[in-house]
TrEMBL record:
Protein keywords: Repeat
Protein name in the entry: ACT domain-containing protein ACR
Pfam family of the protein (one): ACT
Superkingdom of the organism of origin: Eukaryota
Gene3D superfamilies on file: 3.30.70.260
Role played: Binds amino acids.
GO molecular function, one term: amino acid binding
Length: 449
Protein backbone atom coordinates (compact mmCIF):
# COMPACT_ATOMS: atom_id res chain seq x y z
CA UNK A 1 0.00 0.00 0.00
CA UNK A 2 1.33 3.39 -0.97
CA UNK A 3 2.03 5.91 1.77
CA UNK A 4 0.15 9.19 2.12
CA UNK A 5 0.91 11.90 -0.42
CA UNK A 6 2.45 15.15 0.83
CA UNK A 7 2.40 18.12 -1.48
CA UNK A 8 5.97 19.56 -1.62
CA UNK A 9 4.45 23.03 -1.85
CA UNK A 10 2.68 22.63 1.51
CA UNK A 11 5.52 24.18 3.52
CA UNK A 12 5.79 27.11 1.10
CA UNK A 13 2.02 27.58 1.31
CA UNK A 14 2.18 27.62 5.11
CA UNK A 15 4.92 30.23 5.00
CA UNK A 16 2.89 32.36 2.58
CA UNK A 17 -0.14 32.14 4.85
CA UNK A 18 1.97 32.86 7.97
CA UNK A 19 4.93 34.91 6.70
CA UNK A 20 7.83 35.68 9.06
CA UNK A 21 7.64 38.92 10.97
CA UNK A 22 10.88 40.78 11.64
CA UNK A 23 11.37 44.04 13.46
CA UNK A 24 14.54 46.02 14.21
CA UNK A 25 13.85 48.12 17.31
CA UNK A 26 16.16 50.96 18.33
CA UNK A 27 13.84 52.62 20.86
CA UNK A 28 13.04 49.99 23.51
CA UNK A 29 16.58 49.55 24.82
CA UNK A 30 19.01 52.32 25.72
CA UNK A 31 22.28 50.66 24.73
CA UNK A 32 21.46 48.02 22.09
CA UNK A 33 19.24 47.20 19.12
CA UNK A 34 16.50 44.57 19.43
CA UNK A 35 16.00 42.19 16.51
CA UNK A 36 12.72 40.29 16.89
CA UNK A 37 11.88 37.31 14.66
CA UNK A 38 8.52 35.50 14.62
CA UNK A 39 8.00 32.78 12.02
CA UNK A 40 6.88 29.23 11.42
CA UNK A 41 9.31 26.76 12.97
CA UNK A 42 11.49 24.62 10.72
CA UNK A 43 14.70 22.59 11.22
CA UNK A 44 17.83 24.71 11.42
CA UNK A 45 16.06 28.08 11.55
CA UNK A 46 17.86 29.21 14.72
CA UNK A 47 21.26 28.58 13.14
CA UNK A 48 20.20 30.45 9.99
CA UNK A 49 19.17 33.53 11.97
CA UNK A 50 22.27 33.54 14.19
CA UNK A 51 24.44 33.01 11.12
CA UNK A 52 23.04 36.08 9.38
CA UNK A 53 23.54 38.30 12.44
CA UNK A 54 27.10 37.12 13.08
CA UNK A 55 28.06 37.37 9.41
CA UNK A 56 27.21 41.06 9.71
CA UNK A 57 29.76 41.19 12.57
CA UNK A 58 27.05 42.04 15.08
CA UNK A 59 27.59 41.17 18.75
CA UNK A 60 24.74 39.28 20.42
CA UNK A 61 24.71 40.43 24.05
CA UNK A 62 21.40 38.82 25.03
CA UNK A 63 18.88 36.52 23.38
CA UNK A 64 15.64 34.78 24.26
CA UNK A 65 14.71 31.77 22.12
CA UNK A 66 11.45 29.84 22.02
CA UNK A 67 10.59 27.36 19.25
CA UNK A 68 8.46 24.76 20.99
CA UNK A 69 5.59 23.68 18.77
CA UNK A 70 5.04 25.08 15.32
CA UNK A 71 6.19 28.66 15.91
CA UNK A 72 9.63 30.22 16.29
CA UNK A 73 9.96 33.39 18.43
CA UNK A 74 13.33 35.03 19.08
CA UNK A 75 14.54 38.31 20.52
CA UNK A 76 18.20 39.27 20.02
CA UNK A 77 19.95 42.19 21.73
CA UNK A 78 22.72 43.21 19.32
CA UNK A 79 25.37 45.91 18.95
CA UNK A 80 28.09 46.69 16.46
CA UNK A 81 31.75 45.90 17.13
CA UNK A 82 32.10 49.10 19.18
CA UNK A 83 29.15 48.29 21.44
CA UNK A 84 26.85 50.81 19.71
CA UNK A 85 23.33 50.44 18.36
CA UNK A 86 22.79 49.42 14.73
CA UNK A 87 21.88 52.68 13.01
CA UNK A 88 23.10 52.06 9.45
CA UNK A 89 19.96 51.94 7.29
CA UNK A 90 21.43 49.49 4.77
CA UNK A 91 22.34 47.01 7.51
CA UNK A 92 18.85 47.29 9.03
CA UNK A 93 17.25 46.87 5.60
CA UNK A 94 19.40 43.81 4.94
CA UNK A 95 18.39 42.17 8.24
CA UNK A 96 14.70 42.78 7.53
CA UNK A 97 14.96 41.39 3.99
CA UNK A 98 17.13 38.40 4.91
CA UNK A 99 14.89 37.27 7.76
CA UNK A 100 11.57 38.64 6.59
CA UNK A 101 8.85 37.40 4.21
CA UNK A 102 10.52 38.73 1.05
CA UNK A 103 13.58 36.56 1.46
CA UNK A 104 13.75 33.43 3.58
CA UNK A 105 16.97 33.08 5.54
CA UNK A 106 18.14 29.97 3.68
CA UNK A 107 17.56 31.63 0.29
CA UNK A 108 19.48 34.75 1.30
CA UNK A 109 22.38 32.67 2.59
CA UNK A 110 22.55 30.88 -0.76
CA UNK A 111 22.59 34.22 -2.57
CA UNK A 112 25.65 35.50 -0.65
CA UNK A 113 28.83 34.15 -2.30
CA UNK A 114 31.18 35.24 0.46
CA UNK A 115 29.50 32.95 2.96
CA UNK A 116 29.79 29.57 1.30
CA UNK A 117 32.32 26.92 0.45
CA UNK A 118 32.17 25.71 -3.10
CA UNK A 119 33.61 25.85 -6.60
CA UNK A 120 31.29 28.68 -7.59
CA UNK A 121 31.10 30.32 -4.19
CA UNK A 122 33.34 33.36 -4.77
CA UNK A 123 33.47 33.81 -8.50
CA UNK A 124 36.28 32.18 -10.48
CA UNK A 125 37.93 30.28 -7.66
CA UNK A 126 38.54 26.66 -6.78
CA UNK A 127 37.99 25.79 -3.14
CA UNK A 128 40.48 23.49 -1.42
CA UNK A 129 39.84 21.89 1.97
CA UNK A 130 42.75 20.59 4.05
CA UNK A 131 42.78 18.70 7.33
CA UNK A 132 45.75 17.11 9.09
CA UNK A 133 48.21 17.17 11.99
CA UNK A 134 49.51 20.65 12.78
CA UNK A 135 53.20 21.38 13.32
CA UNK A 136 55.46 24.46 13.29
CA UNK A 137 55.96 25.83 9.79
CA UNK A 138 53.20 23.74 8.17
CA UNK A 139 51.20 26.72 6.91
CA UNK A 140 54.36 28.22 5.38
CA UNK A 141 55.00 24.96 3.51
CA UNK A 142 51.40 24.81 2.23
CA UNK A 143 51.56 28.36 0.88
CA UNK A 144 55.01 27.75 -0.65
CA UNK A 145 53.79 24.67 -2.56
CA UNK A 146 50.79 26.56 -3.94
CA UNK A 147 53.05 29.42 -5.05
CA UNK A 148 55.47 27.00 -6.77
CA UNK A 149 52.55 25.39 -8.60
CA UNK A 150 51.38 28.85 -9.77
CA UNK A 151 48.23 29.00 -7.67
CA UNK A 152 47.16 32.35 -6.25
CA UNK A 153 45.43 32.35 -2.86
CA UNK A 154 42.62 34.86 -3.01
CA UNK A 155 41.17 34.05 0.41
CA UNK A 156 41.60 31.54 3.21
CA UNK A 157 40.49 30.63 6.70
CA UNK A 158 42.77 28.53 8.90
CA UNK A 159 41.94 27.04 12.31
CA UNK A 160 44.08 24.93 14.62
CA UNK A 161 43.07 23.05 17.75
CA UNK A 162 44.50 20.12 19.72
CA UNK A 163 47.40 19.64 17.24
CA UNK A 164 44.98 19.49 14.28
CA UNK A 165 44.72 22.02 11.45
CA UNK A 166 41.79 22.71 9.12
CA UNK A 167 41.96 25.09 6.15
CA UNK A 168 39.56 26.32 3.51
CA UNK A 169 41.51 27.96 0.66
CA UNK A 170 40.13 29.83 -2.35
CA UNK A 171 42.68 29.56 -5.14
CA UNK A 172 42.96 30.42 -8.83
CA UNK A 173 45.60 30.59 -11.55
CA UNK A 174 48.24 33.21 -10.73
CA UNK A 175 48.25 34.52 -14.32
CA UNK A 176 44.64 34.40 -15.52
CA UNK A 177 43.04 34.66 -12.04
CA UNK A 178 40.46 32.11 -13.20
CA UNK A 179 39.43 28.87 -11.53
CA UNK A 180 41.68 25.93 -12.33
CA UNK A 181 39.86 22.93 -13.78
CA UNK A 182 42.84 21.11 -15.32
CA UNK A 183 42.70 17.64 -13.68
CA UNK A 184 46.48 17.21 -14.01
CA UNK A 185 47.25 20.43 -12.13
CA UNK A 186 44.68 19.68 -9.46
CA UNK A 187 45.97 16.13 -9.04
CA UNK A 188 49.56 17.39 -8.67
CA UNK A 189 48.43 19.97 -6.12
CA UNK A 190 46.52 17.35 -4.14
CA UNK A 191 49.48 14.96 -4.14
CA UNK A 192 51.98 17.56 -2.94
CA UNK A 193 49.66 18.93 -0.26
CA UNK A 194 49.01 15.43 1.06
CA UNK A 195 52.75 14.83 1.24
CA UNK A 196 53.16 18.00 3.33
CA UNK A 197 50.24 17.19 5.63
CA UNK A 198 51.78 13.74 6.10
CA UNK A 199 50.47 11.51 8.84
CA UNK A 200 52.11 8.19 9.64
CA UNK A 201 50.39 4.93 8.76
CA UNK A 202 49.70 4.19 12.42
CA UNK A 203 48.18 7.62 12.96
CA UNK A 204 44.43 7.23 13.49
CA UNK A 205 43.94 10.76 12.16
CA UNK A 206 44.31 10.80 8.38
CA UNK A 207 45.49 13.83 6.40
CA UNK A 208 42.86 14.85 3.87
CA UNK A 209 42.73 17.11 0.83
CA UNK A 210 39.59 17.73 -1.22
CA UNK A 211 38.15 20.14 -3.76
CA UNK A 212 34.84 21.34 -2.45
CA UNK A 213 31.71 21.40 -4.60
CA UNK A 214 29.25 22.09 -1.78
CA UNK A 215 27.58 25.25 -0.57
CA UNK A 216 28.27 25.34 3.16
CA UNK A 217 29.00 28.37 5.31
CA UNK A 218 32.80 28.55 5.71
CA UNK A 219 32.89 28.77 9.52
CA UNK A 220 30.37 25.95 9.78
CA UNK A 221 32.44 23.87 7.36
CA UNK A 222 35.55 24.37 9.49
CA UNK A 223 33.59 23.24 12.56
CA UNK A 224 32.40 20.18 10.62
CA UNK A 225 35.92 19.32 9.46
CA UNK A 226 37.35 19.61 12.98
CA UNK A 227 34.44 17.63 14.44
CA UNK A 228 34.83 14.83 11.86
CA UNK A 229 38.56 14.79 12.66
CA UNK A 230 37.68 14.37 16.38
CA UNK A 231 39.77 17.30 17.54
CA UNK A 232 37.66 17.29 20.71
CA UNK A 233 39.53 14.19 21.87
CA UNK A 234 42.68 14.79 23.91
CA UNK A 235 45.76 13.80 21.93
CA UNK A 236 48.76 12.33 23.77
CA UNK A 237 51.18 15.07 22.90
CA UNK A 238 52.99 17.76 24.92
CA UNK A 239 52.32 20.45 22.30
CA UNK A 240 48.64 21.04 23.06
CA UNK A 241 48.02 24.55 24.32
CA UNK A 242 46.41 24.45 27.76
CA UNK A 243 43.93 27.29 28.17
CA UNK A 244 44.16 29.15 31.50
CA UNK A 245 41.13 28.98 33.84
CA UNK A 246 39.59 32.29 32.66
CA UNK A 247 39.44 30.93 29.09
CA UNK A 248 38.39 27.35 29.83
CA UNK A 249 34.62 27.08 29.40
CA UNK A 250 32.45 25.51 32.10
CA UNK A 251 29.79 23.29 30.54
CA UNK A 252 27.08 21.30 32.32
CA UNK A 253 24.39 18.94 30.99
CA UNK A 254 21.37 18.29 33.22
CA UNK A 255 17.92 16.80 32.81
CA UNK A 256 14.70 18.83 33.08
CA UNK A 257 12.12 16.19 33.99
CA UNK A 258 9.19 18.62 34.13
CA UNK A 259 9.44 19.53 30.43
CA UNK A 260 11.38 16.54 29.11
CA UNK A 261 14.45 18.45 27.92
CA UNK A 262 18.16 18.18 28.46
CA UNK A 263 19.60 21.50 29.64
CA UNK A 264 23.05 22.51 28.40
CA UNK A 265 24.61 25.39 30.36
CA UNK A 266 27.73 27.14 29.07
CA UNK A 267 29.69 29.72 31.07
CA UNK A 268 32.83 31.19 29.54
CA UNK A 269 34.56 34.38 28.49
CA UNK A 270 32.42 36.25 25.99
CA UNK A 271 33.58 36.89 22.43
CA UNK A 272 32.10 37.50 18.96
CA UNK A 273 30.40 34.52 17.27
CA UNK A 274 30.22 32.53 20.50
CA UNK A 275 26.51 31.78 20.09
CA UNK A 276 27.02 30.80 16.45
CA UNK A 277 29.77 28.32 17.37
CA UNK A 278 27.60 26.67 20.04
CA UNK A 279 24.38 26.52 17.98
CA UNK A 280 26.32 25.31 14.94
CA UNK A 281 27.83 22.44 16.93
CA UNK A 282 24.55 21.40 18.53
CA UNK A 283 22.87 21.44 15.11
CA UNK A 284 25.58 19.37 13.45
CA UNK A 285 25.41 16.89 16.33
CA UNK A 286 21.70 16.41 15.47
CA UNK A 287 20.28 18.24 18.50
CA UNK A 288 17.30 20.61 18.34
CA UNK A 289 17.18 23.77 20.47
CA UNK A 290 13.65 24.39 21.79
CA UNK A 291 14.38 27.20 24.24
CA UNK A 292 17.48 29.22 25.08
CA UNK A 293 18.58 32.20 27.16
CA UNK A 294 21.77 34.08 26.29
CA UNK A 295 23.31 36.83 28.40
CA UNK A 296 26.61 38.66 28.87
CA UNK A 297 27.82 39.98 32.21
CA UNK A 298 30.87 42.13 31.58
CA UNK A 299 33.52 40.02 29.88
CA UNK A 300 31.72 36.72 30.58
CA UNK A 301 28.81 34.97 28.88
CA UNK A 302 26.16 32.61 30.23
CA UNK A 303 24.16 30.53 27.75
CA UNK A 304 21.47 27.96 28.51
CA UNK A 305 19.94 25.66 25.89
CA UNK A 306 16.96 23.31 26.30
CA UNK A 307 17.53 20.57 23.75
CA UNK A 308 16.49 17.14 22.54
CA UNK A 309 17.99 14.86 19.94
CA UNK A 310 16.28 14.96 16.53
CA UNK A 311 14.59 11.65 17.40
CA UNK A 312 13.02 13.33 20.44
CA UNK A 313 15.26 11.69 23.04
CA UNK A 314 17.09 13.53 25.79
CA UNK A 315 20.73 13.01 26.82
CA UNK A 316 20.36 10.21 29.36
CA UNK A 317 23.64 8.35 28.92
CA UNK A 318 26.70 9.73 30.72
CA UNK A 319 28.87 8.99 27.68
CA UNK A 320 26.59 11.09 25.50
CA UNK A 321 26.68 13.98 27.98
CA UNK A 322 30.48 13.83 28.13
CA UNK A 323 30.68 13.87 24.34
CA UNK A 324 28.46 16.96 24.10
CA UNK A 325 30.58 18.73 26.72
CA UNK A 326 33.83 17.89 24.91
CA UNK A 327 32.48 18.92 21.51
CA UNK A 328 31.14 22.26 22.76
CA UNK A 329 34.39 22.96 24.60
CA UNK A 330 36.33 22.31 21.39
CA UNK A 331 33.96 24.49 19.34
CA UNK A 332 34.45 27.40 21.74
CA UNK A 333 38.23 27.07 21.90
CA UNK A 334 38.81 26.77 18.15
CA UNK A 335 38.17 30.48 17.73
CA UNK A 336 39.87 31.75 20.91
CA UNK A 337 42.57 34.22 19.89
CA UNK A 338 44.38 35.10 23.08
CA UNK A 339 48.00 36.05 22.43
CA UNK A 340 49.39 38.11 19.59
CA UNK A 341 47.51 39.26 16.49
CA UNK A 342 49.39 40.41 13.39
CA UNK A 343 47.35 42.41 10.88
CA UNK A 344 49.13 42.90 7.56
CA UNK A 345 48.13 44.97 4.56
CA UNK A 346 50.14 45.07 1.34
CA UNK A 347 49.84 45.12 -2.43
CA UNK A 348 48.90 41.63 -3.49
CA UNK A 349 51.50 39.61 -5.36
CA UNK A 350 52.27 35.98 -6.10
CA UNK A 351 54.08 34.34 -3.20
CA UNK A 352 53.21 37.03 -0.64
CA UNK A 353 51.66 34.57 1.84
CA UNK A 354 54.54 32.15 1.37
CA UNK A 355 56.99 34.95 2.20
CA UNK A 356 55.09 36.20 5.24
CA UNK A 357 54.57 32.76 6.79
CA UNK A 358 58.24 31.90 6.11
CA UNK A 359 59.29 34.98 8.09
CA UNK A 360 56.97 33.97 10.95
CA UNK A 361 58.43 30.46 10.95
CA UNK A 362 62.02 31.72 10.90
CA UNK A 363 61.24 33.86 13.94
CA UNK A 364 60.00 30.80 15.83
CA UNK A 365 56.28 31.63 15.61
CA UNK A 366 53.38 29.20 15.17
CA UNK A 367 50.14 30.33 13.50
CA UNK A 368 47.15 29.41 15.67
CA UNK A 369 44.51 30.88 13.36
CA UNK A 370 44.50 32.97 10.18
CA UNK A 371 42.17 34.94 7.94
CA UNK A 372 43.36 35.85 4.44
CA UNK A 373 41.60 38.01 1.86
CA UNK A 374 42.26 40.15 -1.19
CA UNK A 375 40.24 43.20 -2.18
CA UNK A 376 41.24 44.57 -5.55
CA UNK A 377 45.03 44.81 -5.50
CA UNK A 378 45.29 44.81 -1.71
CA UNK A 379 45.97 41.76 0.41
CA UNK A 380 44.61 41.87 3.96
CA UNK A 381 45.77 39.13 6.31
CA UNK A 382 45.40 38.42 10.03
CA UNK A 383 47.59 35.87 11.83
CA UNK A 384 47.15 34.85 15.47
CA UNK A 385 50.51 33.58 16.66
CA UNK A 386 52.40 32.13 19.61
CA UNK A 387 55.95 30.88 19.92
CA UNK A 388 56.75 27.26 19.05
CA UNK A 389 56.14 26.21 22.69
CA UNK A 390 52.68 27.77 22.79
CA UNK A 391 53.80 30.72 24.92
CA UNK A 392 53.18 34.45 24.29
CA UNK A 393 55.54 36.17 21.86
CA UNK A 394 58.43 38.15 23.34
CA UNK A 395 59.16 41.83 22.73
CA UNK A 396 62.40 41.12 20.84
CA UNK A 397 60.55 38.90 18.37
CA UNK A 398 57.94 41.60 17.79
CA UNK A 399 60.62 44.18 17.05
CA UNK A 400 62.35 41.76 14.66
CA UNK A 401 59.07 41.28 12.80
CA UNK A 402 58.50 45.02 12.57
CA UNK A 403 61.94 45.49 11.01
CA UNK A 404 61.63 42.63 8.54
CA UNK A 405 57.96 42.75 7.54
CA UNK A 406 57.35 46.45 8.09
CA UNK A 407 59.70 47.36 5.23
CA UNK A 408 57.33 46.08 2.53
CA UNK A 409 53.85 46.15 4.10
CA UNK A 410 51.77 47.76 6.83
CA UNK A 411 51.97 45.76 10.05
CA UNK A 412 49.70 46.23 13.04
CA UNK A 413 50.52 44.22 16.16
CA UNK A 414 47.85 43.72 18.82
CA UNK A 415 48.18 42.03 22.18
CA UNK A 416 45.35 40.55 24.19
CA UNK A 417 45.31 42.40 27.56
CA UNK A 418 45.88 40.50 30.77
CA UNK A 419 42.97 42.12 32.59
CA UNK A 420 39.47 40.82 31.98
CA UNK A 421 37.86 43.92 33.47
CA UNK A 422 38.46 46.16 30.49
CA UNK A 423 35.50 47.28 28.39
CA UNK A 424 34.56 45.15 25.34
CA UNK A 425 36.23 47.43 22.79
CA UNK A 426 39.54 47.18 24.66
CA UNK A 427 39.53 43.48 25.51
CA UNK A 428 40.99 42.23 22.24
CA UNK A 429 37.65 40.68 21.25
CA UNK A 430 37.09 43.32 18.61
CA UNK A 431 36.45 42.11 15.08
CA UNK A 432 38.53 38.96 14.80
CA UNK A 433 38.56 38.71 11.01
CA UNK A 434 37.73 40.91 8.08
CA UNK A 435 37.73 37.95 5.71
CA UNK A 436 34.04 37.70 4.87
CA UNK A 437 33.36 41.42 4.90
CA UNK A 438 36.18 41.92 2.41
CA UNK A 439 34.84 39.20 0.16
CA UNK A 440 31.41 40.80 0.17
CA UNK A 441 32.92 44.17 -0.76
CA UNK A 442 34.65 42.50 -3.69
CA UNK A 443 31.91 40.23 -5.01
CA UNK A 444 28.77 42.06 -3.90
CA UNK A 445 29.53 45.76 -4.38
CA UNK A 446 25.85 46.62 -4.15
CA UNK A 447 25.66 45.57 -0.49
CA UNK A 448 27.31 47.82 2.04
CA UNK A 449 27.86 46.68 5.57
Amino acid sequence: MAGPYFDPEYENLSIRINPPRVSVDNTSCRDCTLVKVDSMNKPGILLEVVQILTDLDLLITKAYISSDGGWFMDVFHVTDQNGKKITDSKTIDYIEKALGPKGQAADWIKSRPGKRVGLHSVGNHTTVELIGRDRPGLLSEIFAVLADLHFNIAAAEVWTHNTRIACVLYVNDDTTYLAVDDPCRLSLMEEQLKNILGGSQDDEHVAHTSFSMGFTHVDRRLHQMMFADRDYENADTPNIVEYPPPLKPKIFVEHCEEKGYSVVTVKCKDRPKLMFDIVCTLTDMQYVVFHATISSDGPYASQEYYIRHMDGCTLDMEMEKERVIKCLEAAIQRRISEGLSLELCAKDRVGLLSEVTRILRENGLTVMRAGVSTVGEKAKNVFYVRDSSGNPVGVKTIEALRKEIGLTMMLNVKKAPASSREPPEARGWAKTSFFFGSLLEKFLPGICM
